[in-house]
Amino acid sequence: MSVVSPLLDQINVPADLRDLSKDELRQLADELRQETIDAVSVTGGHLGAGLGVVELTVALHHVFDTPRDRLIWDVGHQAYPHKVLTGRRDRIRTLRQGGGLSGFTKRSESEYDPFGAAHSSTSISAGLGMAVARDLSGGDNRVIAVIGDGAMSAGMAYEALNNAGARKGQLLVILNDNDMSIAPPVGALSRHLAQIVSSKSYQSLRSFGRGIAEHLPRPLHEAAARAEEYARGMLAGGTMFEELGFLYLGPIDGHNLDHLIPVLENIRDNGLDEPVLLHVVTEKGHGYAPAASSDDKLHAVSKFDVVTGVQAKPKAAAPSYTKVFADALVREAAGDDRIVAITGAMPSGTGLDVFGKRFPGRMFDVGIAEQHAVTFAAGLATEGYKPFCAIYSTFLQRAYDQVIHDVALQGLPVRFAIDRAGLVGADGATHAGAFDMAYLGCLPGFVIMAAADEAELVHMVATAAAYDRGPIAFRYPRGDGLGVPLPAQGEVLRIGRGRVLREGKDVALLSVGTRLQAALAAADHLGARGISCTVADARFVKPFDRDLVRRLAQSHHMLVTIEEGSIGGFGSHVLDYLVNNDLMRSGLAVRTLVLPDEFQDHDDMAKQYARAGLNGGDIARVVETSLAKSA
């Protein structure tokens, strides 16, 4: 649909909106909201979070001198309105498409994105780094970090707050509170207090009082400081932030420009040489009825009808891997009350909302706190429970020390269900699970499985539930399964044993995980050219089936390993085994097919696989080229 936007049409960069009146800014916000809704209806993506910060986005770009003033959006999924105002409106309908705009902030995309993000809770740390760099360089620009209350559940945010509060220097942290209601309701009194406390006159009086207090005996000085701090805390909330060294302001209505702009202007103009936390209350999906009435506020959507909000979701031919995992875990848990499930703020994303409904006392959502999730699981394992820690591959990266120190080193039987393993299409490099086989495969005593289809995933859930000798992980991709029949109950697989699906004599294609169908397609292609192929599914990344690898190496001219992961994973382990056991002396040709040594941009999945060289035709070409060279 066509968006009528006479004011927005005049905005090319944020400087264009700095002379607008309050009435014009309100109109601009309305037009920006409609533009965001219309754009996302075409592309799909994150909607609710962006709609919740439209007025805040307008106010920040109106008050501050971006990009000279650094504006950092935590996670970045709420930054679509920001992108529209910062010279990217003409490309906003390319969001998450190949060659188009990223669904998150990205430094290479615009000077208005000073820090790239897609994982949460990084903004305060990055902002503090920029603020310290400014102070070291003698600059006077401002740094603003916008972080949601959900992201404040991660320990990293508090580490940054603690560090920032211990030093002088300007830094503004805006807490965008749209869910947790961590403070009293917004009203005229809290808004009025925020304006008073942020004003120059109050700050001058505060400085005068501090000057007098400094000449008092130490006990009286400390008592006066605490009295002033707690008085503001009792009136306006935020005592915790005050304890961390921040001047706390708010809460204020994040959708009311008459409230937002004066407070932001006061913060900008009063010359404070200390960190400030401004608490802003917003509503996800604000201003769009279908979002406001949705349970998830239309957080992430496919293409949809603007009028009704109905999403154009094609009917799946098979259940998603996430659903298959969740259903299989529920079945295992029904027969074993020691099975518990843990997620880090992703109950629906990992499918554990299903588990939680069936076993509410055995499902734990720990918030955006993967480090805690892993060590929490380790503690459960020490007491004989069977924790399944369901975390996206890229999110598990944030808990790597805990995986090593708290789980692997102690040999604890924590089960890691690694969702979104491999390429993820429109979410791009920030969410692509390329590295888990490499970063887990180097850990002693770790068992790692990779599901080739949804039936294999059911077996791997059963195998993990039965395995008590140490840590075990199984990885599976984003999206729908292949439509293979699902077993009523998972089979406990023999640890470290693969399977052969097709026997041949010339070339062995040894796949692990998701590219098995591509390997079979390659074998068909090569067979039509007279090249006979064995196709095997390793099932286990570690320990892999050494007997199978030895047999394949000794009975074929070429061995090709295929995996949807980075270098350093399965193929590297196989190659190490072949070299160190003299299995290449007879002239065996070996090729290891992995994801390219780059961060692949967001695109259609088929195009991503083609770029990675992991489609059936690509695999066949590698074999033909290699055989031709060795002929």
Structural summary, described in words:
The protein has 631 residues and is of the alpha/beta class. Strands 9-8-10-11-13-12-17 form a 7-stranded mixed β-sheet, with helices on both faces. Strands 2-3-4-6-5 form a 5-stranded parallel β-sheet, with helices on both faces. A 5-stranded mixed β-sheet has the order 14-16-15-18-19, sandwiched between helices. Helix 19 links the parallel strand 12 and strand 13 (472-475). Helix 1 (22-43) crosses helix 3, helix 1 (22-43) crosses helix 4 (80-88) and helix 5 (123-137) packs parallel to helix 6 (155-165). The relative contact order is 0.08.
Topology:
Layout: H1 22-43, E1 45-46, H2 48-52, H3 54-63, E2 70-73, H4 80-88, H5 123-137, E3 143-148, H6 155-165, E4 171-177, H7 188-198, H8 200-213, H9 218-236, H10 239-243, E5 247-253, H11 257-269, E6 275-281, H12 289-292, E7 300-301, H13 321-334, E8 339-343, H14 352-358, E9 363-365, H15 370-382, E10 386-392, H16 393-396, H17 400-408, E11 415-419, H18 436-441, E12 447-450, H19 454-466, E13 472-475, E14 499-502, E15 507-512, H20 516-527, E16 533-537, E17 540-542, H21 546-555, E18 558-563, H22 570-580, E19 589-593, H23 605-612, H24 616-630
Parallel strand pairs: 2-3, 3-4, 4-6, 5-6, 8-9, 8-10, 10-11, 11-13, 12-13, 15-16, 15-18, 18-19
Antiparallel strand pairs: 1-7, 12-17, 14-16
Helix pairs in contact: 1-3, 1-4, 3-11, 5-6, 7-11, 13-14, 13-19, 15-17, 20-24
